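Human: I'm a chemist; would you kindly supply sequence and structure tokens for a protein?

Assistant:
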Amino acid sequence: MKNMLRLTLVAMLLIACKDANQAKTMEGAVNEAIGNNEDVNQKYDHLLKELNKITPLTNAQLLKAFPEKLGNLSLDASGKGSNETRITSSETVVGSFGDNKVRMEILDAAGKNAYGAIIPLKMLQLNKVTSESNNTIRYSKKERNALLIFGTDRDEDTKADYQSELRLLYDNRFYITLEGKQMQVDELWGAINMDDLTRFKDYNQ
């Protein structure tokens, strides 16, 4: 139980951390808490090695690749155009759809960004905790469209801005976080269309 609680805390920190040095430090803490999983380690070590060889997209490319529509939801007016404020300090591009019903952020995990994306995903795959806070927050892992999807559902009384969240690695490069208001993970997945992300895939040739 002590290790599980520690893993949950570390995983949460990793999700919030996109700095390479911080991610490396956190990875060491998780390995100390739960030990190593050889198959998972090999999978993500290979990803890190390959992604480190790639030059990240420029801000202009990130903005150009970001979709103007996600499923049936249109990109909100504040997200249109080449507004540089949509690129965060961690080089993540963000935007909301359907009057802020769905929020999406995408980090190009290439080059120096690799650790900040791959290590959190690795920890999510290793995490065995399925719920917390008296089951008001629930975690899931599910393969959808040949992608491993990590989901989080939150009850409304948690006072979270978004009640559902999906995290995935798209095309073995782009770390995507999706958040949905007043919907569960399955509804959030149903609201999006992965074909809307093909401009990112086009850059990954």
Q: What stands out?
A: The helical segments are 2-16, 20-34, 38-51, 59-65, 114-126, 185-190, 198-203. Residues 1-7 have pLDDT under 50 and may be disordered.
